[in-house]
Amino acid sequence: MAITWKHLFLKKVTIQYPDERFPLPENARNRLKLDMSHCNGCTSCAIICPVKCIKIETIRAVPDDPHKDYYWDGKERKMWLARYEIDFAKCCFCGLCAEVCPTDAINHTVEYEYSVYHRENLLYKFQTLTPAEVEEKRKLLDEFRMKESRIAEAKASEQKDKEKRTDNGTI
């Protein structure tokens, strides 16, 4: 009975979990947080991911885009993110994606509670463009490429004509 009475008045070591939580260290590698305004679409995080849980699809920004956008630091956007998805069911929280990100767009947080009933709900989509805007950006890029190819063809034919005149001795 003496042992029971001794432990009855000691400080409790258990916590009431949902209401109380142990503090996690600042460098804990839990859920990923993505700041889309910082992401430049370099795809280095998707390339280095050992389990390939990050899927990125980019569209090159064209100079004559009517909806120009700028990064958080004021530089003009070079790439549009058509798709940025992270499958947390596959993620091993290794931290490689956060280390290679040149703009610190992706970081680990201390949040660790995000259980779901269905695995499909662990696929997080970080899109800023709507599907209609993605199609518009693709159309603008196709038109820009067609215009560039026409200019390149015109320069090539002009160069051929110049060479032909030089060979004939007319210049």
Structure description:
The chain contains four helices and five strands; from the N terminus they run H-E-H-E-E-H-E-E-H. It is of the alpha+beta class and 171 residues long. The protein is rod-shaped, with a radius of gyration of 28 Å.
Put the structure in a nutshell:
The protein is an alpha+beta fold and 171 residues long. 32% of the residues lie in helices and 15% in strands.
Which key terms come to mind for this protein?
171 residues; 3-stranded antiparallel sheet; 15% strand; two-stranded antiparallel sheet; rod-shaped; alpha+beta; Alpha-Beta Plaits; 5 strands
Q: Helical region count?
A: 4
User: CATH top level?
Assistant: Alpha Beta
Architecture per CATH nomenclature, i.e. the level-2 architecture: 2-Layer Sandwich
CATH topology: Alpha-Beta Plaits
- What distance separates the N and C termini? 116 Å
Proportion of residues in β-strands: 5-15%
Overall pLDDT score: 85
Strand order of the main beta sheet, please?
A: 2-3-5
Question: What is the CA-atom radius of gyration, in angstroms?
Answer: 28 Å
Largest sheet: 3 strands, antiparallel
Q: Which spans have pLDDT < 50 for at least 5 consecutive residues?
A: none
Shape by Cα distribution: rod-shaped
SSE order, one letter for each helix or strand: HEHEEHEEH
Total strand count, please?
5
